[in-house]
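ARCHIVE CARD
Drawer: 12
Card no.: 0347
Subject: one protein chain, sequence and derived structure
Cross-reference: see card 0346
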Amino acid sequence: MLPQVKHVIAWPTIHESPSETRCNEETHPGRLGPLVCRGFAIVITIRVADAKDISAISRLLIPVAEKQVAHEFGAEGTQALLGGMNPEAIANKMLCGYRYYLAIDSGRLVGVLGMRGYSHIYHLFVDEQAQGQGIGRLLFDTARQESLSEVSLSEFTVFSSHYAEEFYRTLGFRRTGDDKTKRGVTGVPMKLVLNRKDSK
């Protein structure tokens, strides 16, 4: 069973400073290595969600999706997108085995990644005020490492919005075909193919 708290690392903010700050690894030994970053640092805790987090997850997902993604769809797609983010829908996903990873900054939820099975990203959203600090990448890195510690995988997949396509490209995902529409939600099918070393 997964421990509740996975790791705490220092992460650079968007503020710049002439001095360099060495970010510490703490419980991240050997994977990221020591990070040298410019500016102030924030400490992000990544942990796996449980039932008591459902309302907080929904409160983060819906405003970000409304502002950054929903405009890509018509009424049917918007309803399907946001309906899948209400507390009841998230609770049902958890009951079906979906795993949600939470990014916490000083007790505040700033990012959420929902994983279906071990390899499909279902939700990945970061609070608007916390974007641009590497939190989305940190969430994916954590989920990826956790999945690979439990099963052997050859790929990760995501049905990305157009808004998030470039972000997923920075993680190594690539389009696998033309846009697809499901229940009014149009997105980009993408895949990250793992090399043999990564898949173990």
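Annotation on reverse: The CA atoms of residues 20 and 38 lie 5 Å apart. The domain at 5-193 is CATH 3.40.630.30 (Aminopeptidase).
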